[in-house]
Amino acid sequence: MRSPFVSAAVAAAAVIALAPLSPAAAADPSAIGDVVCSGGSLNVQYNPGITFSKNTVRLTANGEMGTCTSSNHPKITGGTVRIESALTAACPGPIGPGYAKVTINWNDGSRTVIDQSSLRGSTQSFSLEGGSVANGTFAGGTARAHVRTTSDQVELGAACATSGLTSYAAAIDDFAVGDI
Predict the structure, then answer these.
(1) Are the beta carbons of 65 and 81 closer than 8 angstroms?
(2) Nearest to 138 by CA among 55, 52, 37, 43
(3) What is the pTM of this model?
């Protein structure tokens, strides 16, 4: 005959073993936060230069994020950005679509790395959409940006027709990261 203690222990173990497991809780979007920047600038470079023939190129863009605001991270007011991508391009477009890696070093010393953000555009503008903030500030969030060329379009066309467009200046109209 079993003791009441052993019977209770067996019953408790059976309830625990047969109870459905609850799924892990997803990240709380309010904990991720967000940041929105505007008025920044980029120096966009292509290697090899873009011509009127479609070709695979490496895009590298470096610059300043402009003025940034974040309610969850009020010390973030700006930063530097680097965008890297290998994609197909031709003058005047399309450029991409392709995937870009974006690294942002914020003025407060923190960093955000965004993997697999979709990049597409032309020699007049490009956009970044989606991707996943892999690590750093705003991890678990996503990204969105709109960038427009500020270089002279006639000069860009001339570069396309000769040795290839290798660089131009651009403005960041808006760049949002996090729970957007």
Answers:
(1) yes
(2) 37
(3) 0.81
